[in-house]
Amino acid sequence: MPETALLPDADPEAWPLTRPAxxxxxxxxxxxxxxxxxxxxxxxxxxAVLGAVRAPGWTVQPVDWAQPPHSPYACDPPAVARRLADxxxxxxxxxxxxxxxxLGYSVGGVLALMTAxxxxxxxxxxxxxxxxxxxxxxxxxxxxxxxxEAWTPAAQQAFLQACFAxxxxxxxxxxxxxxxASLPPTALLQSLEGLRAVDLSAQLxxxxxxxxxxxxxxxxRRSVADARELAxxxxxxxxxxxxxxxxxMVDCPQQYLxxxxxxxxxxxxxxxxxxxxxx
Length: 279
Description:
This protein is α/β, with parallel strands linked by helices. Helix content is 35%, strand content 12%. It is built from nine helices and seven strands.
């Protein structure tokens, strides 16, 4: 499918291409002027899964927050959220630079929410999905144990296959396999075990920015009930179900973008939030 077919409402000259994925600690956020979408993949997945995420008038920056093969920083979600917030804060507070939206799915969706909850970070909005306010009903409770005890190539392939409702394009599949093979199991475990220790139910009502929950209804790991509970915890979130699996921006890219674009258009027409003043 041509790229422009994924953008039914777009003038092709009005939107930049998605930027190449970059390690979190190498991105010069101040240099990214104009409306910005910060795109966060799930644990163990290459940021290449976000390559089709585009929007008229927005720059999309996929972020490699795990940074294999060395994974020099903690991959525990609270630690990643603090690093991301610290890196973005000056850019977000610069009202002349343009709005900033966090977009993520799976663990990346939790990272987007946890980052948005950090202090003095007046984001324009958050797009999350295929995750939950907590992991009590996660569809694969034995995943951390497999990584710890039997993380074989076959187990890695099975993990990736379950991320999609149908096989992804071969080139993307190879990128995903190579990325996961390069990721130290200890870093992946930090993400998985850290996620299972997180319960955002009590904090989510304090989110001030608009939130869109995009959830693939064929997800084997996170149910539609998880998505509905997440949206209900936030209160003002909009939930939209999509005909995909755990990675809907790959499974059903046209429907994903058709849901995303109106939300981003709305954010561009909304006055920016004021940063919190110190007490």
